[in-house]
């Protein structure tokens, strides 16, 4: 079985790892920029698919099909993002005689469009947020917003996913401003500029259920994930199980997700997303018809490799487990390591990874595509690694994740690691008081470092520059060797302190 | 003897390095230090603690330092030159806040603009953002056109403050 | 709570990780050679304890107590090796008013001496290997071996542990030869040259049970580990649970280990080791009164952090769990990454770590003290890292461990990684046909690499040398930049292949 | 143009590098290659595969290469010099098989020794091992004394073969 992974970065490597464990041959694809990327070296085979711009490479169906044919792939895994939710891609892969490791074209058609997804959910008996099941036209200056909605509203891409292309409008004027931008963004990201309106639910929690369906009505549920900690509508920290859910609440969403999967004969992995409002009512939002960034927390608490189950289902046509085999244990949390600057409104950062030391030890999993010498660019998503912790309970999982984040050393590029650590130390997070407005409600600020730390930093900087200058003068003996003559032994003996 | 003036988080240190002596703000320091690789990993062995610092040169005079979970920026002047800022008042300079693609330029030279007015739209990481005017003024130069790929910090538009 | 860790390497970092999660302050100690070691930087505080020779630093009770007093430690964790089984150390720590995180001096006295351990086990109703409960004198040329023994026999250090100082004698002449060497080795390693004889059990399996006692008769058992894959009597690959044990067999060794712990009012973590012979009879061998190298496999299948339980017991005096909370799930395997050359009789290797990329992804745990720029020397143990896998069953755990080993890149020092991979691919291992003579019975040979691989290696070597030479000529432009002009695009278009 | 003769696992390759051309055993190669860091990480992009190789210089002319899970040793001669082995027959040379401490020297110069007889005892990683004579002969030189710390490959004892 030769599987081409039509993606890059950590998710490509994640999928290849399971391929390797199963003895499947994995094929990497790469754009110009990615010619030395870790995923191209991890794969058993690798093939170039086009220039850096995603539309010409990772989102280019023609290139991908040509590469698949050239290399003799039996199956294609789309990962997340890029073409993963594009219904044409799955169909084209199947028409070319290959296995598409994802939902059937029918499921994709239903759930790829957020409005038809709402319809399917309502028909399966799920509560859906109020709002019209129709698209917004671009020139809507004259229209009033529909009577069932009131400001604030969210403008969302109908073909969207992963929190991209969502805009908030608090009044009529803002709505007029963002409509155009949202449409352009949606077109750029998903190849489809359709947008629609949804009410903004305040103090909501984002909770989702992982399912796997066999396409014939057999559906497994793998428990829920809490993904409320978001910036710019994109998830930052996710956990399983969702804290403080009652057994009845958990049972309800599991039922709802399974019912929707069964009603639509859902095939492959998918995530049924819900909002829980202040009154603890659940509303269906959408189905993500693909593997998700945050799937590892489910793997940690169930002990099940979701990609393995997905690959085996795709190649055999049969689910390998039954629902009784899915038992949760402990708690898991994922933090997304981003090449973004939280102190500058999460703007993307770039640079070359000059030093890398990834965390380890008990209860820590790293899904990363980083390597020393890697160049981080703004060409693709800013997600560069994920750190996931497991513990017998939520408190231990938090303690471990904090410990792991402190161990993570990524030199050369500014990341959100310190910001993630601050969230995990904040009282509302520890208490499980989490909503999608967490980062607006609770200002997460970096501590001013203590004097000792800045002093050490200043010394390190001076040493560094001094050493560089001495080296550029041509001598091989670096100044730092001289420092060693100031023996610490004497200091300790003399008891001198600073 | 080389002197360094180093500013970190609103604190300023004067570090002097001469042969095997190191002084901070005039005080002799007796740390033992090592550099572990050619890439900026330094170890300061203090009395009861080994501290690890990663130093990375950024723009001229600016260094990133990772130390004890902190990610700090240091401004360094070598030889105690007074860093007389010769850069013009930059409030009229709109620079790219990140690398990315210029989607649209909404003004032209000579336009009067108000504070908060959108001047350009830039895209990066598939996110579009409006770059707004920081003041009321007149557009005096435009350095980019739609479709341009720009580096972070590149000058995009210059404004002459009004009044 | 300030905990000084009287050890180095991966186990020091392992213990500090849990300290950090619990909010305990950790203190590293280091010898001259280790002044930049990772454990000294991981700890909250660090203190120098002497020159490189272990007897003068990590095994120097005086230095350690002085350091503890200077830094104000509340407790000392000995790790494994070094002073961990030295009864004087535990007593000295407690007399100095600190908590010793390990067995009581009484337990240490019973189990530190392998002969008194045999006696205690026999009194608790455990089967013990035949042999005299007395030491061997150095000048035993005139003595016959005791009537209850026959050749081959093992010569073992009474104060030993970790497989060190064990020698095989197949006949009288070999016995005479090895007695002196074994005594000297025991003296060097444990500060006690006492040795004794034990029969060699052929086709034996080495199976051990992890216990934690409260020192007042309360004892928890955490399941067993299979540690039969050994080289030079030292474990190489360990797993939990032991494959192919019947429920009755598992119940028996659990009972036996717990009974011995209760009878001796055992305190802290310990491992009760058994041999299982060809007739599936279990014989007690010894108790290791300390944390063991292979403890992570037990942590992976129980989900319990053994160091955490040990630290909390030591600081509160109470066990935090009851036996019902210890439930096994799946299978875990550990492989020891050694700076040794399996093709040269496992001789130690040395060098500087020039490149490091550690494995990640689902079900992989890394316990390592490696960092890029680290100098590996023969001053201490050759264990440089451990890779541990977990899977829902043994087969998946093996697949994952193989995958993880293949990901592990350690440049600059030859290791046993490729050898470990070959063991994990061998049929007897996959079938669970494991005995302590596995590596003698099954010759594990490296494949001759295929022609494509050696050809690529030759090209890489030539490029490397060429680049170095061009750089030393002073030019900043490296030759490799020129290669890039040979565009791959043309090759792909022209379809040229090698 | 530089020529390299490279021996790996009993195979020998002649690699020629000249500007942007690379030949292996006379055949023009059209790989695209890159060097990712200053530390010996090379990437060979072949037609349908990206291969990663880590190259590390060991002793003169000897290189360690890690590639695809293999750990290979390469002997390299630059410029096709015939590596005329000028080293003496080394069978009478007892060298340290690893770094460590010499515990005991059991022979003295002029001693007749038999094949398999223990000449020295060395300790490393707390394990003692006997270094035995590879042949029958006479001890002609002893380079170490008990207590010496030796590097791997250091000459310890020389023997003159008997007969």
Please state the CA-atom Rg of chain B, rounded to the nearest Å. Answer: 22 Å
Fourth-tier CATH superfamily name of the largest domain in chain B: RNA polymerase II/Efflux pump adaptor protein, barrel-sandwich hybrid domain
Q: What is the tally of helical segments of chain A?
A: 17
The CATH homologous superfamily of the largest domain in chain A: ATP-grasp fold, B domain
Portion in beta strands of chain B: over 45%
Strand content of chain A: 15-25%
Instruction: Name the CATH class of the largest domain in chain B.
Output: Mainly Beta
Look up the CATH topology of the largest domain in chain B: OB fold (Dihydrolipoamide Acetyltransferase, E2P)
Low-confidence stretches of chain A: 475-498
Category by helix and strand content of chain B: mainly beta
Summarize the structure in words.
- Chain A has about 500 residues and is an alpha+beta fold.
- Chain A has helices at about 10-20, 40, 60-70, 85-95, 105-110, 115-125, 170-190, 245-265, 295-300, 305-315, 395-405, 415-425, 425-430, 440, 450-470, 480-485, 490-495; strands at about 1-5, 25-30, 45-50, 75, 100, 155, 165-170, 195-200, 205-215, 220-230, 235-240, 265-275, 280-290, 330-340, 340, 345-350, 350, 355, 365-370, 375, 385-390, 410.
- Chain A folds into four domains: about 1-100, Rossmann fold (3-Layer(aba) Sandwich), CATH 3.40.50; about 130-200, ATP-grasp fold, A domain (Dna Ligase, domain 1); about 205-440, D-amino Acid Aminotransferase, Chain A, domain 1, CATH 3.30.470; about 455-495, no CATH class.
- In chain A, about 35% of the residues lie in helices and about 25% in strands.
- An eight-stranded antiparallel beta sheet of chain A has the order 13-12-9-10-11-14-21-19, with helices on both faces. In chain A, strands 3-2-1-4-5 form a five-stranded parallel beta sheet. In chain A, strands 7-6-8 form a three-stranded antiparallel beta sheet, covered by helices on one side.
- In chain A, helix 5 (about 105-110) packs across helix 6 (about 115-125).
- Chain A is globular.
- The relative contact order of chain A is 0.10.
- The model of chain A is unreliable at about 475-498 (pLDDT under 50).
- With about 160 residues, chain B is mainly beta.
- Chain B has two domains: about 1-80, Glycoprotein, Type 4 Pilin; about 85-160, RNA polymerase II/Efflux pump adaptor protein, barrel-sandwich hybrid domain (OB fold (Dihydrolipoamide Acetyltransferase, E2P)).
- Chain B has strands at about 1-10, 10-20, 20-25, 25-30, 30-35, 40-45, 50-55, 60-65, 70-80, 95, 100-105, 110-115, 120-125, 125-130, 135-140, 150, 155-160.
- A nine-stranded antiparallel beta sheet of chain B has the order 4-3-2-1-9-8-7-6-5, with no helix packed on it.
- Chain B is elongated.
- Chains A and B meet through helix 7, strand 16, helix 12, helix 15 and helix 16 of A and strand 1, strand 2, strand 3, strand 5 and strand 6 of B.
